[in-house]
């Protein structure tokens, strides 16, 4: 899944509640049309749709997209294989998401510490 080494090239996830499709595209290094396609293929991926059918992704959606990206691009899974892996490994997914959240909080706390030391 998402090993810490696999996501070193991905930017940290900002502490926001909702992200636009463009922001998620930049955070996950995946084009917006690919994200829209993945929404159709992976039932775990359900962004909130608001006025004008605009998509707003939450942090958990971004983490799922990063997992899908890792499965497809780094581990060589097919779409069907990645779908089965995500559906069958909900416990691992939760652990991986927890690790990502802990990593993100740690980075944010280090930044706060830098500001406080000035």
* Overall number of strands: 2
Helix fraction, binned, reads: 55-70%
Number of helices: 5
CATH topology: Multidrug-efflux Transporter Regulator, Chain: A, Domain 2
- The total domain count is 1
Structural description of this entry:
With 118 residues, this protein is mainly α. It has one domain: Multidrug-efflux Transporter Regulator, Chain: A, Domain 2, CATH 1.10.1660.10. The protein has helices at residues 21-28, 32-41, 59-74, 79-88, 90-117, and strands at residues 48-50, 54-56. It has a two-stranded antiparallel sheet with strand order 1-2. β1 and β2 (54-56) form a beta hairpin. The longest helix is centred in the last third of the chain and has 28 residues, at 90-117. It is globular, with a radius of gyration of 15 Å. 22% of the residues are buried.
Write the layout of secondary structure elements.
Elements: H1 21-28, H2 32-41, E1 48-50, E2 54-56, H3 59-74, H4 79-88, H5 90-117
Antiparallel strand pairs: 1-2
Helix pairs in contact: 3-4
Which labels suit this protein?
two-stranded antiparallel ribbon; 61% helix; mainly alpha; 118 residues; disordered N terminus; 5 helices; Multidrug-efflux Transporter Regulator, Chain: A, Domain 2
Concise summary:
The protein is mainly alpha-helical and 118 residues long. It is 61% helix and 5% strand.
